[in-house]
Automatic annotation (TrEMBL):
Xylose isomerase-like TIM barrel domain location: 36-265
Single GO molecular function: isomerase activity
Coiled coil: none
Keyword Isomerase (UniProt): yes
Any one Pfam family match given in the protein's UniProt record, by short name: AP_endonuc_2
Listed name of the protein: Sugar phosphate isomerase
């Protein structure tokens, strides 16, 4: 059977990437061995959000030796602003095209002014990353941004207040569903703004809120939880998403990650 025949009719005809946070405990102990394990699963694309005590150059060497790559580099909000050039240098050394931030420090509840301030920061830093370093900035939603605002939410306000040419987004499907939103509808509303996606699922029975926080054990294998992943992936196929990553924050990754990969491979258009 050819590769084309094997993927024909599949809803997700590719192997996803992996967020380093999924294997944060393992990376803390053994970076090279953890990369070997991820590679053994058939995964070659990594989003690093921690260098685990190594330099970017050291990690790039380990990736190159294994035929792997880093497409996105996640950093904190303070480093994004205060160490922009150093962040860009590390991202480029890793081989990443995207720089991602996943949390806006804020006073709860997240409000209109905090959303506008974040959007202004994203426009400013995104412009620098694009013009000076040829990198694309992406903001990863975390749930608290979906406070109702006018006819939408504060996440809509951030979308509408940022420049598409310099600010992209990484859709975390769990942190869209958890505060009561539909990830597929969000993709259809903004098909040209999302560039990256975190694939996750939420344990059945868990009720979400706007906190941006839930127990790690509530991350379950894809297909075992509450999210309508087939509909999300159908919407994603019509969007501008380039990289998909499994992120499993649970302590059960040894069992759950292989099942998530198998679930994605099993999905069909029908």
């Amino acid at each position: 059977m050819t590769t084309a025949q094997a993927t024909e009719g599949r809803l997700f005809p590719r192997t996803p990437g992996m967020v380093s946070f999924t294997y944060r405990r393992e990376f803390d102990e053994d970076v090279a061995g953890t990369l070997d394990h991820i590679r053994s699963l058939g995964v070659t694309d990594i989003e690093f959000s921690n260098l685990f005590g190594r330099t970017a150059a050291e990690i790039r060497t380990l990736l190159d030796e294994r035929g792997m790559s880093c497409s996105s580099y996640g950093v904190g909000y303070a480093d994004l602003q205060d160490s922009t050039d150093a962040v860009a240098a590390a991202a480029k050394t890793l081989g990443a095209r995207f720089v991602r931030v996943a949390w806006i420090p804020h006073e709860s509840p997240f409000d209109h002014q905090q959303a506008l301030d974040a959007a202004a920061t994203f426009n400013r830093i995104g412009s620098r990353l694009r013009s000076e370093h040829d990198l694309t900035f992406c903001y990863h939603n975390h749930g608290y941004e979906f406070v109702p605002h006018n006819d939408g939410t504060l996440f809509d306000l951030i979308m509408q207040s940022t420049e598409p040419a310099v600010v992209g987004f990484e859709l975390d499907v769990l942190w869209t569903f958890f505060p009561g939103q539909d990830p597929a509808q969000l993709l259809r509303r903004y098909p040209d703004r999302f560039r990256l996606m975190h694939l996750k699922d939420l344990r059945c029975g868990v009720v979400g809120d706007l906190s941006g926080s839930t127990a790690p054990e509530n991350d379950v294998a894809l297909g075992d939880g509450q999210l309508d992943l087939p509909d999300i992936l159908r919407a994603a196929r019509e969007s501008s998403i380039e990289h998909y990553y499994i992120e499993d924050e649970s302590p059960s990754t040894a069992d759950q990650v292989p099942r998530s990969l198998a679930y994605l491979a099993s999905l069909r258009w029908s």
